[in-house]
Amino acid sequence: MNNLDRPRCRRRGRLLAGAVCLLALAASAAAQATGADREARSSEFLTVCGDSNHLPFSNDRYEGFENKIAQLIADELGRPLYYRWWPQTVGFVRNTIRMRLCDLIMGITSVNELVQNTNPYYRSVYTLVYRSDSGLTLTALDDPQLKLNQLRIGVVAGTAPATLLTRYGLWDQTRSYERAVDPRLYAPARDAVTDVAAGDLDVALVWGPIAGYYAARQAVPMTVVPLPGEIESVQLAFNVSMGIRDRETEWKHELNTLLNRLAPRIQAILLDYHVPLLDQANHPILPE
To answer: Are 266 and 76 in contact (CB under 8 A)?
Structure first.
């Protein structure tokens, strides 16, 4: 597996706010896309835009589950896999796939309007995370234990569960983790899980893939409880798709065919990373 231009891109991106880097990478991409088809995609490589420090999704050591799934697709296509790295923050789509630095973005919500979405390849949900030795038996956000015991709750600001905590009068006992951060430096959802394990919080409300992955890596046993897909009209479960450019219809059909064929192997990868999975009726998908 190759990693085109990554070190150079990151240095320049810091120094020149990305402008020089973008021009250089765009030129490089054009030069490499000698086999571009009529949708202006590379027919020789699979180029993916991802975050180099965003576990459990991706990193530049290819340890995330999106790395594994991208490799599956590249293998099926019979093409080498290349990455373009960019922090998963504001401007990610604009500065990556729209600049034609790549032909594919992994792991976006299926209602994302900035790209054309493939069919979803998994569905997950927000979860409750607490220490297994805490004596808690929480299974729902309206559980009386939360209020009566004044449990210390952690949540990432602006996420769906934060709305429900306010509605249930639990915000005064909630620690809010900032959402709009530089992912190269901060990982608020991971930190919430770690704080629960350390005893600084009693329970965290975290997006399923992050909760499952980091709960399994704590020094103490942790309990992860998937919440219902929707509570009082607040959606907590979301489909996840891949993103491509608009009007690339043939590419979308090709990817959808691959996703359908690879579905059992993709599901196995996700379960191996402890991702809580739901079917489209919000029933849990459990390891066999």
So the answer is: no
Contacts of 167 (CB under 8 A, 6+ apart): 232, 234
The CA-based diameter of the chain, rounded to the nearest angstrom, is 65
For 176-227, the DSSP string reads EEPSS--TTT--HHHHHHHHHHHTS-SEEEEEHHHHHHHHTTSSS-EEEEEP
Instruction: Report how far residue 37's alpha carbon sits from residue 73's, in angstroms, rounded to the nearest whole number.
Output: 18
| Strand-pair category, 237-244 with 104-109 | antiparallel
Tens digit of each residue's pLDDT (9 = 90 or more) over 30-42: 444 445 556 667 7
Q: Which of 183, 18, 103, 104 minimizes the C-alpha distance to 8?
A: 18
Would you state the structure tokens that stand for residue 7, as one six-digit string?
Answer: 């070190």
Q: Which token pair is 127?
A: 């979860």
Distance CA 44, CA 41 (A): 9
Tell me the per-residue pLDDT of 127-186, one tens digit each, with 9 for 90 and over.
999 999 999 999 999 899 998 889 999 999 999 999 999 999 999 999 999 987 787 888
pTM of the model: 0.85
C-alpha distances (whole Å) from 102 to each of 98, 142, 209 are 8, 44, 24
Collapsing DSSP to helix, strand or coil, 244 comes out as strand
Q: What is the dihedral of CA 81, 92, 127, 158, to 10 degrees?
A: 180
